[in-house]
TrEMBL record:
Name this protein carries in UniProt: Bis(5'-nucleosyl)-tetraphosphatase PrpE [asymmetrical]
EC number(s) stated in the UniProt entry for this protein: 3.6.1.17
GO cellular component: cytoplasm
Source organism of the structure: Paraliobacillus quinghaiensis
SUPFAM superfamilies: Metallo-dependent phosphatases
Amino acid sequence: MKVDIIGDVHGCYNELIDLFKELGYQISNGLPYHPEKRIPAFLGDITDRGPNSIKSIELVYRMVVTEKIAYYVPGNHCNKLYRYFLGNKVQVTHGLETTVAEFEALSDEKQNQIRDNFITLYEQADLYLVLPEVNAVIAHAGIRDDLIGRYDKEVRVFVLYGDITGDKHDDGRPVRRDWAQEHHSDRWIVYGHTPVRTPRIVNKTINIDTGCVFGNQLTAYRLPEEKLVSVPSNQPYIAEKFKYFD
């Protein structure tokens, strides 16, 4: 098995297509296929903030559910959109408003299709994926070693939001523990969630959310090669979005 793990897309559909091409995929009937049958794996947060969340949903749904040529784990933005589509009360803020605006511009028939497809994508997804063939675990916000193999509420919160303490920084961001410092196994933990200017490697963990939606890059991590591939963002650069563990 060879996989290409893709960081947070956040509606940056055009950059995602650019990344697939940079990775050597060929686009056929709107879907990327690799001549060596490499498998893309999405790290969640495929929507919100960026310009093309609906197209991103359509692509990931086709790849993961219809054609079964890709993997997907949900992120916190995926969870919020899922709850919105279920009709739960959620605040349409922090990027969800861009996805909702795109969604509301669609016909009723198209809305029903997108809603049903995303609910299916989310409900069939595992909280995280263990990929022994490439000695890796992928989870949106990471996962501690002692949580691997569990699927309870503590694990769900961790993989969606990180190792949060319950406190907040002055600007409203949650305070998170740097769980990667305590990772000591030889198995890769590949994650995203917190934007970083360059992929952050600590022990055998790697954060590949390089903030495409904030104007930096969209990044993939190739295994078993342990190779990083990035393409530049088309979005405006917002420097203050690149803060972590401060």
